[in-house]
Amino acid sequence: MAIDQFITAVVSSHSRVSFDGQNGEDEPERCTIMTPRDKRALRLTSQVQSDAVFEPERIGMKRKMNGHTLESKRMTVEDDLPYEVDPTVFFTLNYEKYNITFRNNMISDYAIDRINRTAGVVIKAFLRNGKDKMKRVKEDMSPPSTPTHIANMLPPELLTRGDIVFPHGSNSNKSCAVATAIEGYVRLLVADQVGFLTPIDECGTGYYAVNFKKLRSNMKKRLFEDYVTERYGKDCCRLIRILLDKDKLTDTQLQRISMIPLHDIRRKLEALFIAGIVEIQEIPRLHDKAANHSFHLWYVPLEKCYDSLIHDIYRIITNLQQRKTEELQKRDWLLGKLSRSDVASNIDLLNEIDKAEVGNMNKVIERIEIAKARLDEMIMVLRDF
User: Fold this and answer.
1) What is the 3-state secondary structure (H, E, C) of the chain?
2) Residue ranges of the RNA polymerase III Rpc82 C -terminal domain (predicted)?
């Protein structure tokens, strides 16, 4: 875990907050007259110092002594050398690394749900290729890579899954090389409107990166649309999608685009307005700004909706935790039996009624924990990613 940076050594620099370096950067600018070149150099130095905090380090790790010769040591890559933990160093959890791992898994699952399994494997290879260079979970782009390099990371058996139908029923290994198929998947992921991959022209031709910024926005919208569909129906979700696509519309414009009767649209917009999902902007037609001389545009305040959805998820998690506590309190007598040492070593000491009650309790607790885990994933997408 220390080598993979899931835990990091506690050092004195960790007590500094992230904006201390920025304050140090602004101080010379306030006290001295600096040229644009000096300002760029100062900002570059501050950025390098800030990035150094997130660089992979092996503080608290010691190389093991072995009997390798000097020549073999020179041929060994540093990352492949065996390390041991220094017992005198304290370690702490690297929450940023865990969040990056969770985000990468969600993105690959999203590609599997939207396209197929092989597309998810290709996205996972892009993320695995640049995992050592990913420093923050809120980055906009992943480290770039080429389809050829990604194809070398994947096994040739990847094309035998049946996700791709080759012409004339020929064998995939004979009719199409792995690199050609991966390039096709890369083009498919680039063309997808969700924004899985985007070309990086600064690095040269053929470089692609995972577009975290666009994926973050689309994953949040998907959660929000699922919430609206489940709570208010498909027609309301359709209206929300139209407003998100067109920005601001009147009710008559919504009626023409959605082909839903006007009285139904007004009724659904009223319900969404009461819930705070849509809002109205009044546009006066004349200078007197009278209400009867104005038209009203409907729009969706996305950030406000996300905050409201996060609040609702927190409330649901609290209710689930209270339900779990209540379920355990109702079975206080059973928990007392299970805490006995003889019952813990041999569950057969319980009678059939107690065993059935233990099974029911485990099912209820498992369902509650699964629901909490799904809600935690939604919180990660809406708040952390």
Assistant:
1) CCCCCCEEECCHHHHCCCCHHHHHHHHHHHHCCCCHHHHHHHHHHHHHHHHHCCCCCCCCEEECCCCCCHHHHHHCCHHHCCEEECCCCCEEECHHHHHHHHHHHHHHHHHHHHCCHHHHHHHHHHHHHCHHHCCCCCCCECCCECHHHHHHHCCHHHHHCCCCCCHHHCCHHHHCCHHHHHHHHHHHHHHCCCCCEEECHHHCCCCEEEEHHHHHHHHHHHHHHHHHHHHHCHHHHHHHHHHHHHCCECHHHHHHHHCCCHHHHHHHHHHHHHCCCCEEEEEECCCCCCHHHEEEEEECCHHHHHHHHHHHHHHHHHHHHHHHHHHHHHCHHHHHHHCCHHHHHCHHHCCHHHHHHHHHHHHHHHHHHHHHHHHHHHHHHHHHC
2) 65-218
